[in-house]
Design brief:
The complex is a heterodimer of chains A (505) and B (303). With 505 residues, chain A is of the alpha/beta class. Chain A is built from 13 helices and 17 strands. Chain A is elongated and about 150 Å long. Chain B is built from 17 helices and two strands. Chain B has 303 residues and is an all-alpha fold. In chain B, strands 1-2 form a two-stranded antiparallel ribbon. The mean pLDDT of chain B is 87. The chains are: A alpha/beta (505), B mainly alpha (303).
């Protein structure tokens, strides 16, 4: 029997509690800024030009890459810029973005080619393709293209719908489930149809009672189970969720698809349902706005590409300097300012009153981090070796199994930003292995060249040898021929002399 | 660190009750030396002084050492011990968090080896503060008032052929001091300042080893109760072996670490040449910590 609990983890109070969770629809933004780079994979290439009029739902950028999904216009209007804009990333890097200014009409492109209600009559491949061209990616934060994930998990036995929303303070999935419970259930039915899986489990934490009730009301499919799990941070981390629900450990370095499980976020399921059944590509999402500088936390259904500032105009924001966090307090990233736009994986924006930054002190090896690590690593050992850039040792302590959940940093009495160290080490490891691979490649190339030169040399030597022998033989032959000619000549001469002698006599 | 210092109050109180306020003189001397040495070395190492001083670790080291040595030892004993602990036990490795050995125990071992006479003369009865300060600062000697500890006495008597029954049981002062540290330790466990693995396994180690010996020959080996409530057993279990910096950090590793210290304490007490064994047992296990940690890593999810 799978244990509904896991080792480590943290019980964290919701820092921004609210009485009710509603999904608020807001007016169309005047302009949207759509980033072309989505997570890993290549950057999508814009297929529109400046000044072009685009319709809502029209593909504006695409690329032939499994790690990448197409980007759609989220409003109708005119493309006003294609250029570099700041991405919502800690580094503050700029990347290619398409800016569209709204014409206020929200005219839709014809997206009716597809499966609609009759999806059951469609081939799974047709549906995959529909999901791909609808630009669906993992909306829990990872942003991995859903069609690729589904293809990797083809033939899976179990589907897990991650509705845990375990990061404290985020409520956008809960709001979505309360607003569209039928879409969730029917979306899961679509998934069951395409994958042919035996069972789907919707995992949800026990603090979302309203969402649980709503889902239960509409769920009457015996292949779908709604499983309520205790509220504890990192319950929603894919590998931990799989262990909790099914008792299966995903081997280190492998993915859920390797053990026959497809794991999707609940918001992704709703987006996929919209794409397959309602022919709506991914152009909007639910976003939580909360923080100590915001009076009442709110959830908005907002078009992608809407700016943070636009969203913030719908909440009561306290004056003063702010700390902006995207994607959660535990695993999210701190941003400088609010000059960003909502992307497919922006699940929350937290605006907190700026606080004095705490100074990290020495690690005293107290071991608090061991006790909270949900994958049972030894964070302080990893820290020790990361700090000294001893990557080999860090690998002995399973560096790559760290899920960067941030539990260790949260409990550290010395306030050490542990996860930063691990991220650094992982990057260093990647670089080192790449370098190693390159060195290996160069070595192989060198050895091959040496081998080739050697081979050429010996081949040439053999050839020369053969030629020499042939020449010798030929010369020997020549000699014997010469001798024969000479003999013949002598004979002729002798005959001539005989004749002359005979004539004379 | 503060919590640990507060938790020492009961045990130190018992020491004061039995031996007099001289204990406090040692603590004050130790603390002043520790803070001064720490500050000087931080300055030499080009570190900021304030955060490291205010974490209380130097003061804790000084207190642990001060209550481990005889309360009427000359002033230079504690000063030298603390200097050795802070400089060679801690700062030389890079300060807090980087020291492989427990600094207080390193200081204790240094003192015990270098000044065995001063380190084994405990007051045999309550001594007034005036008398004590005269002794500590070398103005007079109180030879008549000092004696060996019970552990030492038992060892000597046993070697001379006496049986356990003739020697008698635990001394009252040792009993109460140990109970004081036990209560302080339980407080730390409840506050989750320390984790249960090391204290429980250490006490189990002492219990198991002393029981084995007692069962072999109850005439020549002291009982488990004696070992648990004499000398620095409780202080070691809750305050010394639990120093996180020099202890093992894995859950299983902590149990092994504590248990082996417990076993070693009894072995060194019974067969060793020194009256108490905590310092050597802890230092020996400190050396093995990287090895224990490496081989007791918990099973990572998916491995």
């Amino acid at each position: 029997m799978p244990n509904s609990n896991f080792k480590g983890g943290l019980k964290i109070e919701n820092p921004y509690p609210s009485n009710e969770i509603d999904l608020i629809r807001i007016p169309l933004p005047d302009k949207v800024v759509l980033p072309m780079q989505q997570r890993i994979g290549n950057q999508a290439i814009p297929c529109v030009s400046i000044g072009e009029h685009v319709l809502t739902g029209q593909i504006i950028a695409t690329i032939d890459d499994d790690q990448c999904a197409p980007v759609h216009a989220s409003i109708s209007g005119t493309v006003t810029a294609i250029g570099n804009h700041v991405y919502a990333h800690q580094s503050g890097l700029k990347g290619l973005c398409v800016t569209i200014e709204s014409d206020g009409k929200d005219e839709w492109v014809d997206t009716s080619i597809g499966c609609t209600e009759n999806y059951k009559a469609c081939l799974p491949l047709t549906i995959y393709d529909k999901i791909r061209i609808s630009g669906i990616v993992g909306m829990g934060g990872a942003g991995f293209p859903t069609h690729t994930k589904m293809r990797l998990a083809a033939g899976c036995k179990n589907i897990i719908i991650n509705a845990t929303e375990c990061e404290p303070g985020i409520t956008c999935d809960a709001a979505l489930m309360q607003a569209y419970p039928t879409k969730v259930i029917r979306g899961v039915e679509v998934l069951l149809h395409i994958t042919g899986a035996e069972k789907a489990i919707i995992a949800i934490e026990d603090d979302k009672q309203d969402s649980i009730n709503e889902l239960n009301k509409y769920c009457n499919n015996e292949r779908i189970e709604i499983k309520v799990i205790p509220t504890k941070y990192t319950s929603g981390a894919e590998k931990i969720l799989i262990k909790t629900l099914l008792g299966i450990e995903v081997p280190s370095g492998k993915f859920a698809s390797d053990v026959g499980i497809l794991c999707l976020n609940v918001a992704t399921v709703v987006a996929m349902f919209d794409a397959v059944v309602e022919n709506r590509p991914l152009i909007s999402r639910a976003v939580t706005l909360a923080g100590s500088a915001i009076k009442e936390p709110k959830n908005f259904q907002v078009r992608l590409g809407a700016t943070y500032d636009y969203l913030l105009s719908f909440v009561d924001l306290e004056e003063g300097s702010h700390k902006v966090t995207m994607a959660g307090l535990m695993m999210g990233i701190n941003l400088k300012g609010t000059d960003y736009s909502v992307s497919k994986n922006t699940n929350c924006i937290f605006i907190d009153k700026a606080q004095e930054s705490v100074v990290a002190q020495e690690c005293i090896r107290c071991g608090m981090c061991n006790t909270v690590c949900p994958v049972e690593l030894l964070p302080q050992q990893l820290y020790w070796y990361s700090k000294s850039e001893n990557i080999e040792k860090a690998m002995d302590y399973n560096l790559l199994d760290c899920i960067e959940c941030g539990c260790c940093s949260y409990v550290c009495p010395s306030n050490i930003p542990l996860v930063d160290y691990y991220q650094f080490s992982k990057a260093l490891y990647k670089k080192q292995t790449q370098e190693k691979a390159e060195i290996e490649k160069a070595r192989e190339r060198f050895e091959f060249r040496e081998m080739r030169l050697e081979r050429n040399k010996s081949e040439r030597a053999a050839l020369m040898e053969a030629k020499k022998i042939a020449l010798k033989e030929k010369m020997a032959k020549d000699r014997s021929q010469k001798e024969k000619i000479n003999a013949a000549l002598e004979r002729v001469n002798a005959a001539k002399i005989d004749n002359i002698e005979e004539d004379a006599s | 660190m503060r919590q640990v210092i507060y938790a020492l109050v009961l045990g130190v109180g018992a020491q004061i009750y039995f031996f007099g306020l001289s204990v406090l003189i040692q603590i004050v001397l130790g603390c002043i030396t520790a803070v001064a040495a720490e500050a000087v070395f931080l300055r030499l190492r080009g570190q900021t002084i304030k955060p490291s001083i205010s974490d209380g670790s130097a003061v804790l080291t000084a207190i642990l050492l001060a209550i481990s040595i005889p309360s009427i030892a000359p002033w230079w004993v504690i000063v030298l011990g603390v200097l050795f602990a802070i400089i060679f036990g801690k700062q030389i490795f890079g300060g807090l968090g980087n020291n492989p050995f427990n600094p207080a125990m390193l200081g204790y071992a240094f003192l015990l080896i270098s000044y065995p006479l001063q380190m084994t003369q405990w007051p045999s009865e309550f001594i007034s503060i005036a008398q004590a300060s005269e002794t500590i600062f070398g103005l007079s000697s109180i030879d008549g008032l000092t004696g060996a500890t019970k552990l030492d006495y038992v060892k000597t008597q046993l070697m001379m052929g006496a049986s356990i029954k003739e020697i008698g049981s635990i001394s009252i002062s040792q009993l109460w001091i140990n109970i004081g540290f036990l209560i302080g330790g339980i407080y730390l466990l409840f506050r989750r300042v320390i984790l249960w693995q090391i204290p429980i396994s250490l006490l189990s180690g002492v219990l198991v080893m002393s029981s084995i010996l007692f069962l072999i020959d109850s005439n020549h080996y002291a009982s488990s109760i004696f070992h648990l409530l004499s000398g620095a057993t409780m202080l070691a279990a809750f305050f010394i072996a639990t120093d996180p910096v020099s202890a093992s950090t894995t859950p299983l590793g902590r149990i092994i670490y504590g248990f082996l210290i417990g076993i070693l304490i009894v072995i060194i007490r019974v067969y060793g040449g020194y009256p108490d064994a905590v310092a050597f047992a802890v230092l020996l296990l400190n050396i093995t910590v990287p090895l224990i940690d490496f081989y007791t890593q918990p099973k990572v999810l998916g491995k």
